[in-house]
Write a structure and sequence with these properties.
Number of helices of chain C: 13
CATH class of chain A: Mainly Alpha
Number of domains of chain C: 2
CATH architecture of chain A: Orthogonal Bundle
CATH class of the largest domain in chain C: Alpha Beta
Shape of chain A: globular
Radius of gyration of chain A: 23 Å
Strand content of chain A: under 5%
CATH superfamily of chain A: MetI-like
Structural class of chain C: alpha/beta
Distance between the termini of chain A: 20 Å
Chains: A mainly alpha (495), B alpha+beta (351), C alpha/beta (342)
Strand content of chain C: 5-15%
Structural class of chain A: mainly alpha
Oligomer: heterotrimer
Largest interface: A-C, 64 and 65 residues
CATH topology of chain A: MetI-like fold
Number of helices of chain A: 21
Number of strands of chain A: 0
Largest sheet of chain A: none
Largest sheet of chain C: 10 strands, mixed
CATH topology of the largest domain in chain C: D-Maltodextrin-Binding Protein, domain 2
Helix content of chain A: over 70%
Helix content of chain C: 40-55%
Radius of gyration of chain C: 23 Å
Number of strands of chain C: 10
Shape of chain C: globular
């Protein structure tokens, strides 16, 4: 985690103070700053509102095909933002600029909030809701006064991921022509090979994300346990009246159409228009490479995240620092992380452009997701079970292995799956760090989109979405992975 | 099985003193109930015995073994204690058999393990439940499995924390009876924490009454019921009526319950502690010439509580009578006290 | 007794990991199968267009190529970051600018004279460490049914006639190279003037040249500044005739800037001679001919080779510009930023 930051500081120090001043003080930087902040704020606000509303609807209204709806609503995160954007602008070329970016980014980031809110909702004691209603609160008032305070921490954590996603996103903003820091940084690298100035901008970005992260941890409510009774009712009485169901179904349908069906259909059409010339063996190889590299990345992220998460849980301040650090790094554009690791990795010839370094890069880029998951999952293991295990003659390490880890496993697993998912979609760092000849779906797709062969890119894009759908689906259906999950740890929970 | 001896135990959370100067001795094989209102430190005491909380002062001995002094605290996993927390605390990711076999080490064979699990499940009356998951069990079943899990490791002592609190009234009596019988049959030293006086009176060989962090009285159920050291303590083992009384200079006690003619003017003012069932009532004059008017009847079926109004006293006195009865509100009855005289002036009782 | 959930999880993880190991071993083996000489190529030219040439090279010489594809500028940045540790032997770039950037960091080896002599000096590095391979020309693309009066110079595009109808890709390297050339030929003030006039004409901004051509085809805009070969690229992508044509500005106009794709050898390469063979191969007459027919680029070796339907390179009358100087886009970007186009 220090690697990219050390790199940036070193590069930034290279720059002549003159250039530095002109870069930082110029009007354009201010504009970029304002654009980045307003875009992030708007997207976070909208994604949070929509995401919480969708999660609430999915949790409380009797929708047709509830499990399917739940899976479909989450699935847009399986689509890389550049694919997503490409699909939209290839049908609506006039879709350009700030508002288009807000629209597209909201669609593609809302699932992070839905995921977090849903898993938090599943832990809320429904009897409180019922009590509130008997006390004369209507459904909305109940939501704001009783439910929302309880899911707030999880939701803010989801919103934080959205914020970091928007800050580091390149695909959507570059295709839609919105000047954010990430795009400006990329342009500097590409246009003038001015690494120092780019590093300065990247450091500003790091500062912004640092501020956002600290705001998030400040707004976090510290009262942990809202349970008033140890026996809690998680399954709500579903709302079944026709009007609510109709509205909820339409809203869900619209979201799924915009966020998933539409881009997917376009990909499928492009896929079949070109089906004859697809090199299936290459497609399969790329898919396998993607899975291997991303799995390794997720695995390394897990290995790095476990000790950090455990230490944070035990109150180590160094670990807490690392915990915040990985979040800051999370907001760095892939190109910055890529170049930092190029600078670092090329010092070690045996490591450079190996699968190992690529996996390490993925782990660094996306570790925030797994550290958070480890931390919350561990914190959610009931202390009394740990105590009982001790009285049953188990040492601390035995208890950790037999009780804490299995109970936290589903949550940790979903965090790891999120890393897996993000790694699959990653492009700029992959381009720089993949072993030569080891092409992933993302790099293959880039090969074609970079020369605007979108039909030829479509099979790779489609395969990427399909492969990415697997972890997305698993994140959303933890019961398929572990039966004890709903009793202890939250699935897909990012708080 | 082992005896338990606690001397001058003190526990602090931050600056709050939870337990102080707590003393308690429990014989090996005895079934002890710790009785007290919520917040008096019962659970803290239990967790301290289990080794989950480090005391700030005092000693704990299991038999002759010192498990806790200021410098040395034996960690919980070395204490060989079966701890059954509220609602069982079964491990949700393990099935019943895995829960029960949890503490059995790897040293024993598969078959041995299997047979211990089976015998434990038979003991708690839940054989055939091996494959169930905790969440598929009722509250009472969870408690019994938790007990089986604790007993499987042949503990020197079992600690029960409000084991029956989560059960509904109908199940409660049956299950608590079963569990208690079970523990007594295995002759395991047991410490049960409860706020339910009936649970305590029915099950325990020894009852320790706790008030704000220390044991104020301990003894057999009969001792603590019949000889409470204060009104407050008396109330925690059963209903109690306090009756204004005067101790004359000659040392005789006068109260409205005993003397229809009223209380003497001089002497020491105080109260008598009387259990409602010690107040005998009859429609006809017996030995007693004290009368009262029934102002209210709370009928429970097996018995009834009558509220009696005495002439010249605003306070109503409760008396318990057996179920089949034909008293009426407004009826004037003869009242007699048949029981020990418990005199209270200030806080101390004296017979 | 049923295995615990965790044990099941662990079993699955173990299976996953072993599969992973097998798969990565398999990948590793397939990579290491050949013991023949292998050179590592960083290619800013896209796989789609360059791979057939590289395969032909391997077939002819037996020299294996490990090719990393990427964006030319990003690869250049990567080479700069790698410095003397670079595993690359050869760099193929889409444009002269990326070559110039790496060249000025002195990471390229001197090329032998038999290579340099094949190419006109204006299409190679002044420090003799890179050569152009193919030529690409800046043109304007337009919709023939909506545009009757073609612009003669880039200045015409500032006319009110084109208000809101022009498409440019200001973040794209090819456009920035053109602006850099403009600064060289007219000076910074005049360039700023031109850019301001263009900006006031409310151009539609794109990320890529190809998007401009497609936008012309679908009617979003009527004219745009692109490289000449995008006309074919977009038509091939869409698989149909497109409603767009390209044309040149009048002879000598800076709008007709010729840029090159090129090649250079890393000075740290231990396979200089094999790498030189590849450059020699790319400059061979038959291969140049293949470039012209397959990728619709201009040959830099044989002036008689040019794409069908276009004028010869010498008739385009590109302005005289030092290609190596296109590397430093700092002034250009500063200008574009100042005006607010990027």
């Amino acid at each position: 985690m220090a690697i990219p930051l050390v790199y940036l500081v070193r590069r930034a120090l290279d720059s002549e103070s003159q250039t530095l001043a002109t870069v930082v003080m110029r009007r354009k930087t201010l504009e970029i700053f304002v654009t980045t902040l307003t875009l992030t704020t708007l997207v976070v606000a909208l994604a949070t509102i929509i995401g919480v509303a969708m999660a609430w609807t999915l949790h409380n209204v009797a929708l047709p095909f509830p499990n399917l709806s739940r899976a479909l609503v989450i699935l847009p995160i399986a689509i890389p933002s550049y694919v997503f954007t490409f699909c939209w602008i290839s049908l609506f070329p006039e879709l350009q600029g700030f508002w288009a970016a807000v629209f597209i980014l909201v669609l593609s980031t809302t699932p992070f909030v839905i995921l977090a809110a849903l898993s938090a909702l599943r832990r809320v004691d429904w009897s409180q809701h019922e009590v509130a209603q008997t006390l004369g609160l209507n459904t909305f008032a109940t939501f704001f006064q009783v439910t929302l305070p309880q899911i707030r921490n999880s939701v803010t954590a989801g919103s934080l991921l959205v914020a970091l996603y928007v800050l580091s996103d390149f695909g959507a903003v570059s295709l839609l022509g919105v000047d954010t820091f990430t795009r400006a940084i990329s342009n500097l690298y590409r246009g003038s090979f001015d690494r120092s100035t780019a590093a300065v901008l990247a450091l500003i970005l790091v500062a912004i994300s640092g501020i956002i992260i600290s705001i998030e941890s400040r707004t976090r409510s510290h009262s942990k346990n809202f349970r008033s009774s140890s026996r809690i009712i998680n399954n709500p009485q579903l709302i079944r009246n026709f009007k609510s169901r109709a509205i909820a179904s339409v809203v869900t349908l619209v979201y799924v159409l915009l966020g998933l069906a539409f881009p997917l259909t376009l990909l499928i059409i492009r896929f079949f228009s070109n089906a004859a010339v697809i090199d299936y063996s290459n497609l399969l190889r790329a898919a396998l490479s993607t899975i291997i590299a991303s799995l390794l990345g997720a695995f390394v992220a897990l290995l790095l995240a476990l000790p950090v998460g455990i230490l944070v849980q035990q109150g180590s301040s160094l670990a807490r620092f690392a915990d915040k650090g990985v979040l800051v790094v999370h907001a760095l554009p892939g190109i910055v992380m890529g170049l930092a690791l190029v600078a670092f990795g090329s010092e070690f010839g045996w490591l450079y452009q190996t699968l190992g370094l690529l996996a390490f890069a993925y782990a660094l880029l996306f570790m925030a997701k797994s550290v958070g998951a480890v931390r919350t999952s561990l914190s959610r293991v009931p202390q009394n079970l740990v105590d009982i295990s001790a009285t049953l003659g188990q040492t601390r390490s035995q208890t950790f292995r037999r009780i804490v880890l299995p109970l936290a496993a589903p949550g940790i697993l979903s965090g790891t799956l999120l890393v897996f998912l993000a790694a699959m979609k990653e492009l700029p760092a992959t381009l720089m760090l993949h072993p030569t000849g080891f092409e992933t779906l993302a790099t293959e797709m880039w090969t074609y989109t970079s020369i605007f062969r979108f039909s030829e890119a479509a099979p790779y894009a489609l395969a990427l979405v399909l492969v990415a759908a697997i972890p997305t689906f698993l994140i959303n259906r933890p019961d398929l992975v572990n039966r004890s999950d709903k009793y202890v740890s939250g699935e897909g929970d990012l708080s | 099985m082992t005896s338990l001896e606690i001397r001058d135990l003190g526990v602090k959370f931050e600056s709050r003193q939870i337990l102080s100067k707590l003393n308690l001795t429990i014989e090996a094989g005895a079934f002890a109930a710790i009785l007290g209102p919520s917040g008096c430190g019962k659970t803290t005491l239990l967790r301290t015995i289990a080794g989950l909380i480090t005391p700030s002062e005092g000693t704990i001995r299991f038999g002759k073994q010192l498990v806790s002094v200021s410098s040395l605290v034996l960690p919980p996993h070395k204490r060989n204690i079966g701890y059954v927390p509220q609602e069982g605390g079964l491990f949700p990711h393990l099935n019943v058999a895995e829960n029960v076999g949890f503490a059995l080490g790897k040293k024993i064979s598969r078959d041995e393990r299997q047979s211990i699990i089976e015998s434990m499940l038979t003991l708690v009356g839940l054989s055939g439940f091996e494959k169930r998951l905790p969440q598929e069990l009722s509250g009472g079943q969870q408690t019994r499995i938790a007990l089986a899990r604790a007993l499987a490791m042949k503990p020197a002592m079992v600690l029960l924390d409000e084991p029956f609190a989560a059960l509904d009234q109908a199940l409660r009596a049956g299950i608590s009876e079963e569990v208690v019988a079970l523990l007594k049959s295995t002759n395991t030293t047991t410490v049960m924490v409860t706020h339910d006086r009936e649970d305590a009176l029915v099950s325990a060989d020894v009852i320790a009454l706790m008030r704000s962090g220390s044991v104020v009285q301990s003894g057999t159920p009969a001792e603590v019921y019949l000889k409470p050291i204060s009104a407050d303590v008396a109330e925690s083992t059963g209903d109690v009526v306090t009756i204004p009384a005067v101790q004359s200079n000659e040392g005789r006690y006068f109260s409205i319950l005993h003397h229809s003619e009223g209380l003497p003017q001089d002497g020491l003012k105080g109260e008598l502690l009387v259990r409602p069932e010690e107040i005998r009532i009859s429609a006809n004059s017996t030995a007693s010439r004290v009368t009262a008017t029934i102002s209210r009847i709370n009928y429970y079926g097996h018995d009834a509580l009558l509220e009696l109004e005495f002439a010249g006293m605003a306070k109503l006195i409760r008396a318990r009578v057996a179920g089949p009865m034909n008293f009426e509100v407004g009826q004037t009855v003869f009242v007699e006290h048949q029981g020990p005289i418990r005199w209270v002036s200030g806080n101390a009782t004296r017979e | 007794m049923s295995p615990t959930a965790f044990a099941r999880l662990r079993k699955r993880a173990a299976l996953f990991l072993s599969l992973l190991t097998i798969a990565s071993l398999a990948t590793a083996c397939s990579q290491d199968s050949a013991k023949r000489e292998t050179i590592t190529v960083y290619s800013g030219r896209s796989e789609e267009f360059i791979a057939p040439f590289l395969e032909k090279f391997t077939a002819e010489t037996g020299i294996e190529l490990d090719v990393r594809y990427g964006d030319s500028a990003a690869l250049a940045a990567q080479l700069l970051e790698e410095g003397s540790n670079s595993p690359a032997d050869l760099f193929l770039s889409q444009d002269a600018g990326s070559l110039g950037a790496v060249s000025s960091a002195q990471l390229f080896a001197q090329l032998p004279s038999q290579i340099l002599s094949r190419i006109e000096p204006k299409y190679q590095s002044a420090s003799s460490d890179w050569v152009g391979v193919t030529g690409r020309v800046r043109v304007f693309a337009y919709a023939p049914d909506r545009v009757s009066a073609l612009p003669q110079t880039i200045d015409d595009l500032a006319a009110p006639l084109w208000k809101g109808r022009l498409g440019i890709a200001p973040t794209n390297g090819s456009f920035q190279a053109f602006v850099t050339a403009l600064i060289q030929s007219r000076g910074e003030a005049a360039t700023e003037q031109w850019l301001t006039a263009i900006k006031d004409n409310e151009p539609v901004l794109f990320e890529k040249n190809s998007q401009i051509v497609e936008a012309i085809d679908n009617g979003q805009i009527d004219i745009g500044l692109v490289n000449h070969y995008y006309l074919w690229e977009v038509a091939e992508e869409l698989g149909r005739e497109i409603n767009a044509k390209i044309d040149f500005f009048q002879a000598g106009d800076i709008g007709n800037l010729t840029n090159v794709s090129g090649a250079a050898i890393l000075s740290t390469s231990k396979k200089q001679s094999a790498a030189q063979k590849l450059i020699e191969f790319l400059l061979r007459d038959d291969i140049q001919k293949k470039f012209v027919s397959d990728t619709h680029e201009y040959s830099l070796v044989n002036p008689a080779l040019w794409p069908d339907g276009l004028p010869a390179l010498q008739d385009v009358k590109s302005p005289a510009v030092d290609l190596a100087s296109l590397a430093d886009l700092r002034r250009t970007q500063a200008l574009l930023v100042k005006i607010g186009l990027i």
